[in-house]
Amino acid sequence: MKVGVAGLGLMGSGIAKRLVGTGHEVAVYNRDRSKAEKVSGAAVAETPAGLASSCQLIITVVTDYDAVRQVMLGDGGISKSPNKPIVADASTISPLQSKQLAESLRQAGVEMLGMPVMGGPAAAESGELIPMVAGGRQAYERARPVIEKLGKKAFYIGEKDGSANAVKLALNLNIALIATAVSEGITLARASGIDPAVFVDILNSTYFKTGLSEKKGPMMVKNDFTPSFHLKNMLKDLELATGTAQQAGITLPVTALVQQVFRAANNSGFSESDYTAVCAFLAKINGMEK
């Protein structure tokens, strides 16, 4: 199966490199062609429709709903190709947006799987992502050999369009809340005259440690916010989560509060930093910047 990858940011590039490295014939598309040309071993398509013309499966990994819709349904989009590949959308969009895209593509003869993933660019390149998939079972089974190359375990949520995206947002809000909690712990320790590295070391010696506190905690203490996932994108996901909650008629009060914290951090110059830069934002508003 020849696989196309549309969108070559941090995640898309990692996925494309992984597929090339596991022996797949790969073609890539990106609005900025220079990024596509950096993926060694992959053919470069001029348009999403051009990508679709030569591929049986396309994985889309772009920033937001508008970008996904343009790649799939816009001029030169995947749906305009006479060839009809399966599309697996790994972009983080809302359940409703994913459902609407799947319905529109289905009318054009294209089967879409919602396939958000957990894990960062390094996990993408090493094949350690956690894909979550929703959509037609037959399409999933056809794409499954490729999807399983992306991670050790793939979860098929079911045929309901958008259901995988709901799970993705539920997971990402947990990440944002954990990052905020660790940031507040670091801030309190620092304000109390205690080396925050001691706080992180103790936290990571307890039952309450997380992968985030173990990997990101020491970096947060050192004010190292090199992005693996930009703060602006975590803000987008929190806004999608709170919007989805409103559509479902429920309240997520802590998520709504953290969304406002991330909005303020984004507006205070931390948008291009790692999402854990919420720690630096807390230092700033508390007058604790060095």
How do the helices and strands line up, and which of them pair or pack?
Blueprint: E1 3-6, H1 10-21, E2 26-29, H2 33-37, E3 43-44, H3 48-54, E4 57-60, H4 65-73, E5 86-89, H5 95-107, E6 112-114, E7 117-118, H6 121-126, E8 130-134, H7 137-147, E9 155-158, H8 163-191, H9 196-203, H10 211-215, H11 217-221, H12 231-248, H13 253-270, H14 278-285
Parallel strand pairs: 1-2, 1-4, 2-3, 4-5, 5-6, 8-9
Antiparallel strand pairs: 7-8
Helix pairs in contact: 4-5, 8-9, 8-12, 8-14, 12-13, 13-14
Q: Indicate the CATH topology of the largest domain.
A: Rossmann fold
**For the largest beta sheet, what order do the strands appear in spatially?**
3-2-1-4-5-6
- Sheet with most strands: 6 strands, parallel
Strand content: 5-15%
What pattern of helices and strands is seen along the backbone?
EHEHEHEHEHEEHEHEHHHHHHH
Number of helices: 14
Low-confidence stretches: none
What is the overall pLDDT average? 96
Helix-strand makeup class: alpha/beta
Tally of domains? 2
The gross shape turns out to be elongated
Number of DSSP strand runs: 9
Q: What would CATH call the architecture of the largest domain?
A: 3-Layer(aba) Sandwich
Specify the helix fraction band: 40-55%
Question: In CATH's first tier, which class of the largest domain applies?
Answer: Alpha Beta
Alpha-carbon distance between the two ends: 53 Å
CATH superfamily of the largest domain: NAD(P)-binding Rossmann-like Domain
